[in-house]
Write a structure and sequence with these properties.
With about 250 residues, this protein is of the alpha+beta class. The chain has four helices and ten strands, in the order ββββαβαββαβββα. The chain has a single domain, classed as GHMP Kinase, N-terminal domain (Ribosomal Protein S5, domain 2). α1 packs across α2 and α2 runs parallel beside α4. It is globular. It starts with about 25 loop residues before the first strand and ends in a 6-residue tail after the last helix. Bound molecules: adenosine-5'-diphosphate (ADP).
Protein backbone atom coordinates (compact mmCIF):
# COMPACT_ATOMS: atom_id res chain seq x y z
CA UNK A 1 0.00 0.00 0.00
CA UNK A 2 2.68 2.54 0.99
CA UNK A 3 4.84 3.92 -1.78
CA UNK A 4 8.31 5.27 -0.97
CA UNK A 5 8.02 7.90 -3.71
CA UNK A 6 4.37 8.93 -3.73
CA UNK A 7 3.09 11.40 -6.28
CA UNK A 8 1.51 14.51 -4.82
CA UNK A 9 -2.02 13.36 -4.01
CA UNK A 10 -3.20 16.69 -2.55
CA UNK A 11 -2.49 20.18 -3.91
CA UNK A 12 -1.93 23.38 -1.90
CA UNK A 13 -5.71 23.92 -1.68
CA UNK A 14 -6.21 20.41 -0.30
CA UNK A 15 -7.81 19.19 -3.53
CA UNK A 16 -7.16 15.71 -4.88
CA UNK A 17 -5.65 14.60 -8.20
CA UNK A 18 -9.11 14.60 -9.82
CA UNK A 19 -10.03 17.96 -8.25
CA UNK A 20 -12.28 16.53 -5.53
CA UNK A 21 -12.47 17.62 -1.92
CA UNK A 22 -11.48 15.05 0.68
CA UNK A 23 -15.12 14.32 1.58
CA UNK A 24 -16.45 14.16 -1.98
CA UNK A 25 -17.70 11.10 -3.87
CA UNK A 26 -16.77 10.58 -7.50
CA UNK A 27 -19.61 11.20 -10.00
CA UNK A 28 -22.00 8.23 -9.85
CA UNK A 29 -24.36 6.97 -12.56
CA UNK A 30 -26.72 4.08 -11.83
CA UNK A 31 -29.02 2.24 -14.20
CA UNK A 32 -31.33 -0.68 -13.47
CA UNK A 33 -32.61 -3.46 -15.73
CA UNK A 34 -30.27 -3.07 -18.65
CA UNK A 35 -29.85 -6.75 -19.62
CA UNK A 36 -32.73 -8.70 -21.18
CA UNK A 37 -31.54 -12.24 -20.51
CA UNK A 38 -30.70 -12.08 -16.80
CA UNK A 39 -33.49 -12.00 -14.20
CA UNK A 40 -32.11 -8.75 -12.81
CA UNK A 41 -29.32 -6.38 -13.74
CA UNK A 42 -27.75 -3.03 -12.98
CA UNK A 43 -24.91 -0.85 -14.22
CA UNK A 44 -22.78 1.57 -12.26
CA UNK A 45 -20.24 4.17 -13.24
CA UNK A 46 -18.37 5.62 -10.30
CA UNK A 47 -15.56 7.83 -11.51
CA UNK A 48 -13.84 5.73 -14.16
CA UNK A 49 -15.24 2.44 -12.83
CA UNK A 50 -17.72 0.79 -15.19
CA UNK A 51 -19.39 -2.26 -13.70
CA UNK A 52 -22.25 -4.56 -14.72
CA UNK A 53 -24.09 -6.72 -12.22
CA UNK A 54 -26.46 -9.53 -13.22
CA UNK A 55 -28.60 -11.95 -11.23
CA UNK A 56 -30.16 -15.32 -12.05
CA UNK A 57 -32.56 -16.91 -9.65
CA UNK A 58 -33.85 -18.00 -7.30
CA UNK A 59 -33.78 -21.21 -9.36
CA UNK A 60 -33.44 -24.90 -8.63
CA UNK A 61 -29.99 -25.70 -7.26
CA UNK A 62 -27.57 -27.53 -9.55
CA UNK A 63 -25.69 -29.62 -8.59
CA UNK A 64 -28.34 -30.73 -6.11
CA UNK A 65 -25.90 -31.43 -3.28
CA UNK A 66 -25.21 -27.68 -2.84
CA UNK A 67 -28.88 -27.06 -2.01
CA UNK A 68 -29.86 -26.15 1.56
CA UNK A 69 -33.17 -27.41 2.99
CA UNK A 70 -34.10 -24.15 4.73
CA UNK A 71 -32.85 -21.33 2.46
CA UNK A 72 -31.42 -20.25 -0.87
CA UNK A 73 -27.69 -20.43 -1.50
CA UNK A 74 -26.20 -17.21 -2.85
CA UNK A 75 -23.22 -17.59 -5.17
CA UNK A 76 -21.19 -14.67 -6.43
CA UNK A 77 -18.54 -14.20 -9.08
CA UNK A 78 -16.55 -10.94 -9.18
CA UNK A 79 -14.61 -10.87 -12.42
CA UNK A 80 -12.37 -8.27 -14.05
CA UNK A 81 -12.50 -8.18 -17.84
CA UNK A 82 -9.02 -8.53 -19.42
CA UNK A 83 -9.39 -4.96 -20.76
CA UNK A 84 -10.49 -3.43 -17.43
CA UNK A 85 -7.00 -2.36 -16.33
CA UNK A 86 -3.91 -0.82 -18.00
CA UNK A 87 -2.10 -4.12 -18.57
CA UNK A 88 -4.19 -6.99 -19.99
CA UNK A 89 -5.42 -9.05 -17.06
CA UNK A 90 -5.60 -12.81 -17.39
CA UNK A 91 -9.27 -13.84 -17.65
CA UNK A 92 -8.59 -16.74 -15.25
CA UNK A 93 -9.86 -16.07 -11.71
CA UNK A 94 -7.12 -14.64 -9.48
CA UNK A 95 -6.86 -15.01 -5.70
CA UNK A 96 -8.01 -11.39 -5.40
CA UNK A 97 -11.12 -12.08 -7.49
CA UNK A 98 -11.94 -15.13 -5.34
CA UNK A 99 -11.62 -12.99 -2.20
CA UNK A 100 -13.77 -10.21 -3.61
CA UNK A 101 -16.41 -12.71 -4.77
CA UNK A 102 -16.62 -13.95 -1.18
CA UNK A 103 -16.78 -10.52 0.47
CA UNK A 104 -19.39 -9.23 -1.99
CA UNK A 105 -21.54 -12.31 -1.33
CA UNK A 106 -21.16 -11.89 2.44
CA UNK A 107 -22.00 -8.18 2.28
CA UNK A 108 -25.30 -8.93 0.50
CA UNK A 109 -26.41 -12.11 2.31
CA UNK A 110 -27.78 -10.24 5.37
CA UNK A 111 -30.31 -8.34 3.27
CA UNK A 112 -31.72 -11.19 1.15
CA UNK A 113 -34.69 -13.14 2.57
CA UNK A 114 -33.08 -16.45 1.60
CA UNK A 115 -35.41 -18.50 3.81
CA UNK A 116 -38.27 -17.80 1.37
CA UNK A 117 -36.55 -19.92 -1.28
CA UNK A 118 -35.28 -23.22 0.18
CA UNK A 119 -33.30 -25.58 -2.10
CA UNK A 120 -32.58 -22.85 -4.66
CA UNK A 121 -29.57 -20.82 -5.77
CA UNK A 122 -29.25 -17.13 -6.50
CA UNK A 123 -26.33 -16.43 -8.84
CA UNK A 124 -24.77 -13.02 -8.80
CA UNK A 125 -22.25 -11.84 -11.41
CA UNK A 126 -20.21 -8.68 -10.96
CA UNK A 127 -18.33 -7.92 -14.15
CA UNK A 128 -15.73 -5.16 -14.01
CA UNK A 129 -15.54 -3.58 -17.46
CA UNK A 130 -13.22 -0.79 -16.35
CA UNK A 131 -11.56 -0.53 -12.98
CA UNK A 132 -10.31 2.54 -11.15
CA UNK A 133 -10.20 1.78 -7.42
CA UNK A 134 -13.12 0.92 -5.16
CA UNK A 135 -14.51 -1.68 -7.54
CA UNK A 136 -15.65 -4.06 -4.78
CA UNK A 137 -17.75 -1.27 -3.25
CA UNK A 138 -19.20 -0.09 -6.57
CA UNK A 139 -19.83 -3.77 -7.38
CA UNK A 140 -21.84 -4.21 -4.16
CA UNK A 141 -23.89 -1.07 -4.85
CA UNK A 142 -24.74 -2.37 -8.35
CA UNK A 143 -25.28 -6.00 -7.29
CA UNK A 144 -27.76 -4.96 -4.65
CA UNK A 145 -29.75 -3.09 -7.32
CA UNK A 146 -29.59 -6.12 -9.62
CA UNK A 147 -31.06 -8.29 -6.82
CA UNK A 148 -33.90 -5.79 -6.38
CA UNK A 149 -34.42 -5.71 -10.16
CA UNK A 150 -34.72 -9.52 -10.14
CA UNK A 151 -37.61 -9.08 -7.68
CA UNK A 152 -35.81 -10.93 -4.91
CA UNK A 153 -37.27 -9.97 -1.52
CA UNK A 154 -34.73 -8.00 0.50
CA UNK A 155 -34.75 -6.15 3.78
CA UNK A 156 -33.29 -3.10 2.02
CA UNK A 157 -30.66 -2.05 -0.52
CA UNK A 158 -27.00 -2.31 0.47
CA UNK A 159 -24.67 0.52 -0.56
CA UNK A 160 -20.89 0.52 -0.27
CA UNK A 161 -18.06 3.03 -0.30
CA UNK A 162 -14.41 3.11 0.77
CA UNK A 163 -12.53 5.71 2.78
CA UNK A 164 -8.77 5.95 2.71
CA UNK A 165 -5.87 8.05 3.84
CA UNK A 166 -3.81 10.20 1.50
CA UNK A 167 -0.93 12.36 2.68
CA UNK A 168 -2.08 11.94 6.26
CA UNK A 169 -5.70 13.00 5.56
CA UNK A 170 -8.85 10.88 5.41
CA UNK A 171 -10.31 10.84 1.88
CA UNK A 172 -13.63 9.47 0.66
CA UNK A 173 -14.04 7.09 -2.29
CA UNK A 174 -10.42 6.50 -3.33
CA UNK A 175 -9.50 6.35 -6.99
CA UNK A 176 -6.93 3.82 -8.22
CA UNK A 177 -3.88 6.07 -7.78
CA UNK A 178 -5.02 7.12 -4.29
CA UNK A 179 -5.62 3.47 -3.40
CA UNK A 180 -2.16 2.42 -4.65
CA UNK A 181 -0.17 5.35 -3.26
CA UNK A 182 -2.23 6.21 -0.21
CA UNK A 183 -1.65 5.00 3.32
CA UNK A 184 -4.90 3.14 4.06
CA UNK A 185 -8.10 1.82 2.47
CA UNK A 186 -11.29 1.05 4.43
CA UNK A 187 -14.12 -0.42 2.30
CA UNK A 188 -17.53 -0.38 4.01
CA UNK A 189 -20.93 -1.77 2.97
CA UNK A 190 -23.96 -0.55 4.89
CA UNK A 191 -27.72 -1.02 5.24
CA UNK A 192 -28.98 2.44 6.32
CA UNK A 193 -32.44 1.52 7.64
CA UNK A 194 -31.13 -1.37 9.74
CA UNK A 195 -27.96 0.59 10.64
CA UNK A 196 -25.97 -2.54 9.82
CA UNK A 197 -22.42 -2.66 8.48
CA UNK A 198 -22.17 -5.75 6.24
CA UNK A 199 -18.59 -5.29 5.00
CA UNK A 200 -15.64 -3.84 6.86
CA UNK A 201 -12.13 -4.41 5.58
CA UNK A 202 -8.96 -2.47 6.21
CA UNK A 203 -5.68 -2.27 4.39
CA UNK A 204 -2.89 -0.03 5.75
CA UNK A 205 -2.72 1.80 9.06
CA UNK A 206 -5.20 4.16 10.76
CA UNK A 207 -5.24 5.42 14.34
CA UNK A 208 -8.39 4.64 16.33
CA UNK A 209 -9.79 8.22 15.99
CA UNK A 210 -9.03 8.11 12.24
CA UNK A 211 -10.78 4.75 11.96
CA UNK A 212 -13.88 6.06 13.76
CA UNK A 213 -14.01 9.23 11.65
CA UNK A 214 -13.35 7.26 8.45
CA UNK A 215 -16.09 4.75 9.23
CA UNK A 216 -18.56 7.60 9.78
CA UNK A 217 -17.52 9.25 6.49
CA UNK A 218 -18.08 5.95 4.66
CA UNK A 219 -21.47 5.43 6.31
CA UNK A 220 -22.61 8.95 5.32
CA UNK A 221 -21.50 8.25 1.74
CA UNK A 222 -23.42 4.94 1.78
CA UNK A 223 -26.55 6.86 2.81
CA UNK A 224 -26.07 9.20 -0.18
CA UNK A 225 -25.54 6.21 -2.50
CA UNK A 226 -28.63 4.54 -1.03
CA UNK A 227 -30.75 7.56 -2.07
CA UNK A 228 -29.26 7.32 -5.58
CA UNK A 229 -30.05 3.57 -5.70
CA UNK A 230 -33.68 4.22 -4.84
CA UNK A 231 -33.88 6.92 -7.53
CA UNK A 232 -32.40 4.50 -10.10
CA UNK A 233 -35.02 1.86 -9.21
CA UNK A 234 -37.82 4.43 -9.39
CA UNK A 235 -36.56 5.66 -12.79
CA UNK A 236 -36.89 2.20 -14.26
CA UNK A 237 -40.49 1.84 -13.12
CA UNK A 238 -41.52 5.36 -14.13
CA UNK A 239 -40.14 4.64 -17.64
CA UNK A 240 -42.16 1.40 -17.78
CA UNK A 241 -45.26 3.32 -16.69
CA UNK A 242 -44.70 6.01 -19.37
CA UNK A 243 -44.40 3.34 -22.08
CA UNK A 244 -47.55 1.59 -20.82
CA UNK A 245 -49.47 4.87 -20.75
CA UNK A 246 -48.37 5.70 -24.29
CA UNK A 247 -49.70 2.31 -25.46
CA UNK A 248 -53.01 2.90 -23.71
CA UNK A 249 -53.62 6.28 -25.40
CA UNK A 250 -56.57 5.97 -27.80
CA UNK A 251 -55.83 6.14 -31.50
CA UNK A 252 -56.70 9.48 -33.06
CA UNK A 253 -58.86 8.95 -36.17
CA UNK A 254 -58.31 11.69 -38.72
P1 LIG B 1 -10.92 -2.32 -5.13
O1 LIG B 1 -11.14 -2.19 -6.62
O2 LIG B 1 -12.12 -2.80 -4.40
O3 LIG B 1 -10.35 -1.04 -4.53
P2 LIG B 1 -8.27 -3.39 -4.68
O4 LIG B 1 -7.98 -2.46 -3.55
O5 LIG B 1 -7.77 -4.80 -4.58
O6 LIG B 1 -9.85 -3.48 -4.93
O7 LIG B 1 -7.74 -2.81 -6.04
C1 LIG B 1 -7.61 -1.43 -6.25
C2 LIG B 1 -7.47 -1.16 -7.71
O8 LIG B 1 -6.29 -1.75 -8.21
C3 LIG B 1 -8.56 -1.75 -8.60
O9 LIG B 1 -9.78 -1.04 -8.59
C4 LIG B 1 -7.88 -1.69 -9.95
O10 LIG B 1 -8.00 -0.40 -10.52
C5 LIG B 1 -6.43 -1.99 -9.58
N1 LIG B 1 -6.15 -3.39 -9.90
C6 LIG B 1 -6.62 -4.50 -9.28
N2 LIG B 1 -6.17 -5.62 -9.87
C7 LIG B 1 -5.40 -5.21 -10.91
C8 LIG B 1 -4.65 -5.87 -11.93
N3 LIG B 1 -4.60 -7.20 -12.03
N4 LIG B 1 -3.99 -5.10 -12.82
C9 LIG B 1 -4.02 -3.75 -12.74
N5 LIG B 1 -4.71 -3.06 -11.83
C10 LIG B 1 -5.38 -3.78 -10.92
Amino acid sequence: MQNKHPEKLLDEKGLRVDGRRLDQLRPVRLEVGILDKANGSAYIEQGKNKILAAVYGPREAHPKHIALPDRAVIRCRYHMAPFSVDERKSPAPSRRELELSKVIRESLEPTVLTDLYPRTTIDLFVEILQSDGGSRCAGITAASLALADAGIPMRELVAACAVGKVQGQLALDLSDIEDKQGEADLPVAYMPNSNLVTLLQMDGILTLPEFEKGLNMAIEACKTLHTMQREALKNKYSQIREVAEEKEEPEVIA
